[in-house]
Design brief:
Blueprint lengths: L17 H14 L12 H8 L3 H13 L3 E4 L5 E4 L4 H14 L4 H22 L2 H16 L4 H19 L2 H25 L3 H22 L3 H19 L8 H5 L1
Antiparallel strand pairs: 1-2
Helix pairs in contact: 1-3, 4-8, 5-7, 5-8, 5-9, 5-10, 6-7, 6-9, 7-8, 7-9, 9-10
């Protein structure tokens, strides 16, 4: 009886550079909270001794972490490295570049938002607390007061969408939403510049406001399926309205 052994490939295994290993250890301390926001990293000489590396290697590790926005480095006699907390804006900017390069359409991004946000509306209805309801109702009240100011209203409108995802309580969906929200928000602002105050804009704003109010009531009643379906329809209506502009059809048109 013969035993077949898998073929051995000659693909070389990449060995991480020492600077990458140092960056990985410092990154781990940051994400675990061992190094807190605003805290200065130890002096270069201390870190060089701790990791047994040269100054150029340590500074290369710093550049890696700085590119990830995990530290900020000030040069000079009074300089040094300080810790920054990880933020979704870094991922959002990078995602935008990738989507631009791939020629991604705005419709593609809007469809992704629906996939993320609609289930969040259902999760929120299932999990909501009294405090969540208070925040949602306060957001609706604030938006109503801004109805006659297109720029202020669209800001409140976008913040309500972000709030729905935040209160759903799923961190992964929240990060993913932040990546697409960066692009959606830019598209919203561009559309406001084009038709703020027009009859069509006023109708769209009022229709959106009614959907927000209806969602709050479904969340209050814990009607998860109805909340998700309402939000899906609302997002589709918003997509149809925002994609009417033919001057911007891709992420590159918007961000490039």
């Amino acid at each position: 009886m013969s035993v077949e052994v898998g073929a051995v490939t000659n693909t070389p295994v990449r060995v991480p550079k020492m600077a990458e290993l140092v960056a990985a250890q410092l990154r781990r301390k940051i994400v675990r909270g061992e190094l807190t926001e605003g805290e200065a990293l130890p002096a270069e000489t201390a870190l060089m001794e701790e990791f047994a590396v040269s100054r150029p290697t340590l500074r290369e590790a710093f550049r890696v972490l700085e590119s990830e926005s995990l530290i900020s480095v000030r040069r000079g006699a009074r300089g040094g490295a300080r810790v920054q907390i990880p933020e979704g804006t870094v991922a959002a900017r990078y995602a935008g570049v990738v989507l631009e390069y791939r020629g991604t359409t705005l419709k593609d991004v809007y469809d992704a938002r629906t996939v993320i946000e609609a289930p969040c509306a259902g999760l929120l209805a299932e999990r909501r607390t009294d405090e969540d309801l208070e925040r949602l109702r306060a957001a609706v009240t604030e938006a109503e007061a801004l109805m006659d100011d297109p720029s202020a209203f669209i800001r409140a409108h976008m913040e309500f969408h972000a709030l729905v995802v935040e209160l759903a309580g799923n961190e992964t969906l929240s990060v993913l939403n932040g990546m697409v929200r960066h692009i959606i928000d830019q598209a919203n602002w561009s559309h406001v510049d084009l038709d703020a105050g027009s009859p069509e804009n006023v109708r769209a704003n009022r229709r959106g406001f009614r959907a927000h109010g209806a969602l709050v009531e479904l969340v209050a009643a814990r009607r998860a399926e109805a909340a998700e379906e309402l939000w899906r329809v609302h997002l589709q209506e918003a997509e149809d309205y925002l994609l009417q502009s033919r001057s911007m059809t891709t992420v590159l048109d918007l961000l490039g």
